[in-house]
Design a protein that fits this description.
The structure is a single chain. This protein has about 600 residues and is an alpha/beta fold. The protein contains 23 helices and 21 strands. It has 4 domains: about 170 residues, Rossmann fold, CATH 3.40.50; about 130 residues, no CATH class; about 140 residues, no CATH class; about 70 residues. Helix 8 runs parallel beside helix 9, helix 13 runs parallel beside helix 21 and helix 17 crosses helix 21.
Length: about 600
């Protein structure tokens, strides 16, 4: 059973219906108090027996609700449907819904694929005459007693049920009747990272549960005493050997480790603590400092990963890590992320993982489509995520690539504007030009510069931006891209194919030069650049007439740069390429010269509108 999405309405800061998609690994990002932890707590309410608290109900500026709803949609393996939910699985999906009302116990609902004939669906509750009528309706034999009539209807439904008309209805059920088949929810908050023994206890609990209980939560009764002894031996061995190896990676001073463990069928696993020996005898972990505890938590997490990967889980698990990156250095954050993700992405482990984080290290390593960005506006939270609208190319693109052409996940979700250019000259100079123009860098203003020529996956990347960041995207293209036969990668025709509409093309796309971006450079700055990068072997310098001849001889002046520089390779033994030319020319231009370029005025005005 795999959680596919969680719906929240009226719970804490989520006033409106909000659907949160989930994956094997799901990453929640957002500012402090935006609602990341609220989603994790909502999952705990949905999958547990805990009652609501007064502060759980949305209450802001005099608007208060007396009821909130949590709902989960789960994918179920059709080959292993638990008996307790088999009537509630529709198209391999199971829906669990809880409604919490102030002053009342929560109510649990699900969807049922019911018989359209209500009397036939509820034949067991019918009295004698309606039951007789039902037999007549379906041309079934009459029977003298109510018991035999019901038996006749039971056999009929079993034999003909697949062919009878159906309807999907929401039905109420008792939560305890299905709780054992739901995913087992484990939450790690900030307190857990300072208390690594809690993770040890959870890992040992998993081992015990898998040894003593089947996939439906029923106790295995065969040879229970020998199983207990074998499990105790396994628990101690796992701590004293496997866990020790992982701990020694981070603290080689630790010579031995042991746990205070006992198994009691009345109380379950009794774990009193973890003891470490650094050469001065065993001492409880609680006596260690906070820094040591955090490093120890990472060691235990890697040990837990090995345990989960080598032993298949009977009952599915959902693990939530609330800001595990807190106070961890870069390398530890990276290792923690991979320890969590390796478990989540292993199909044998049957574990989903959720990370609520501020760490760019973790965000940029996660699959782009697994990230949910929680935002809050005036106290009300909502969620953003990268949408594909069923486009298989974009989905494949997101599955395979998390960092594209220098664009990281954190940029896609956090930055304010995407400036698309299609050439190396633009990439080399636009950042400098922006700094001269505004006395601020692109990154300071939250503008991401993307050169599509260096990104082989640009077509699907632009499709992704159109579906998710269209209003925040601007493009600076060479003027000749308006000609579909120009040979450029990005043309108006291709942008139309992707789905950029006329309004976008009119207001978000800007064209540079007569042919290309290099046309914007003044002749005297090109001359200076040639004299700096390629001074002639004689005392004769490059003149304005030379540059004007270049423009006359080559419709694309960048071609002229390329041809003329080849003549001087033997003399200079070095060849400068277009980005280096563009960068040097930009360095020579004055602020006044730059601000007199019309296309840049229009481009930066649009960027300013987006940023504001």
């Amino acid at each position: 059973m795999i959680l596919k999405e969680l719906s929240i309405e009226g719970y804490k800061c989520f006033r409106d219906l909000t659907v949160v998609p989930f994956h094997n690994l799901t990453v929640l990002i957002g500012e402090n108090d935006s609602g990341k932890s609220t989603i994790l707590k909502a999952l705990g309410l949905l999958l547990g027996r805990t009652a609501q608290q007064d502060e759980d109900f949305f209450n802001l500026n005099g608007i208060e609700v007396n009821e909130f709803c949590l709902s989960g949609n789960f994918k179920v393996n059709p080959d292993n449907v638990p008996e307790s939910i088999k009537f509630f699985v529709i198209n391999d999906n199971f829906t669990l819904k809880k409604i919490f009302t102030k002053g009342q116990a929560f109510k649990t609902y699900t969807l049922k694929n019911s018989l359209a004939d209500i009397d036939l669906e509820n034949y067991l509750s019918l009295t004698a005459q309606p039951t007789k009528d039902l037999l007549v309706k379906y041309e079934l034999p009459a029977h003298p007693t109510q018991e035999t009539r019901r038996e006749e209807l039971k056999v009929f439904i079993e034999n003909e049920g697949d062919n009878l008309p159906k309807t999907i209805n929401e039905v109420e059920l008792i939560y305890n009747t299905i709780s054992q088949v739901l995913p087992y929810y484990q939450y790690y908050g900030s307190h857990a990272y300072g208390n690594p023994q809690a993770l040890v206890k959870t890992t040992l609990d998993n081992i015990v549960r898998n040894q003593f209980y089947d996939e439906h939560g029923e106790l295995r009764l065969a040879s229970i005493r020998s199983i207990r002894n074998r499990v105790l031996q396994k628990l101690n061995s796992s701590i004293e050997k496997n866990l020790l190896v992982n701990i020694q990676k981070y603290n080689p001073k630790i010579a031995n480790i042991q746990g205070r463990i006992n198994l009691d069928f009345g109380q379950g696993l009794n774990f009193q603590g973890l003891e470490l020996d650094e050469g001065q005898g065993f001492k409880l972990v609680d006596q260690k400092g906070e820094g040591s505890k955090k490093r120890l938590f990472l060691s235990i997490l890697e040990w837990d990963k090995e345990i989960q990967i080598t032993s298949q889980q009977n009952r599915p698990i959902i693990r939530a890590y609330d800001e595990p990156d807190s106070n961890l250095h870069y390398d530890a954050q990276r290792k923690m992320f991979y320890a969590i993700s390796e478990v989540a992405n292993n199909p044998k482990v049957n574990t989903q993982s959720i990370i609520a984080t501020h760490s760019l290290t973790m965000i940029d390593r996660a699959p782009s489509n697994s990230i949910n960005h929680i935002v809050q506006d005036a106290g009300i939270s909502s969620i953003n995520y990268l949408k594909t609208d069923g486009d298989a190319d974009i989905q494949t693109f997101l599955d395979e690539v998390s960092v594209v052409g220098g664009v990281k996940n954190s940029s896609i979700f956090y930055e304010k504007c995407f400036l698309i250019v299609e050439g190396d000259s633009e990439e080399a100079s636009i950042g400098k030009i922006y700094k001269i123009w505004f006395n601020r860098t692109l990154s300071e203003d939250g503008v991401v510069l993307i050169n599509l020529q260096s990104n082989g996956a640009w077509f699907n990347f632009l499709k992704l931006l159109r579906k998710n960041k269209k209003a925040s995207t601007v493009m600076l293209l060479d003027f000749d891209t308006q000609n579909p036969e120009c040979g450029a990668s990005v043309t108006i025709e291709k942008l139309n194919q992707i789905g950029f509409d006329a309004d976008f093309l009119a207001n978000h796309v800007f064209f540079a030069g007569i042919q290309e971006f290099e046309d914007l450079y003044p002749d005297h700055r090109i001359r200076e650049t040639f004299n700096i990068l390629y001074p002639r072997p004689t005392k004769i310098k490059w003149t304005l007439k030379d540059i004007q001849k270049l423009r006359a001889d080559y419709p694309k002046i960048s071609k002229g740069f390329d041809k003329e520089t080849l003549k001087f390779i033997a003399h200079h033994h070095q060849r400068y390429k277009k980005p280096e030319f563009a960068s040097k020319i930009t360095d020579l231009m004055t602020e006044k010269e730059i601000k007199n370029i019309d296309v840049l005025q229009n481009l930066f005005h649009k960027i300013g509108q987006i940023l504001n």
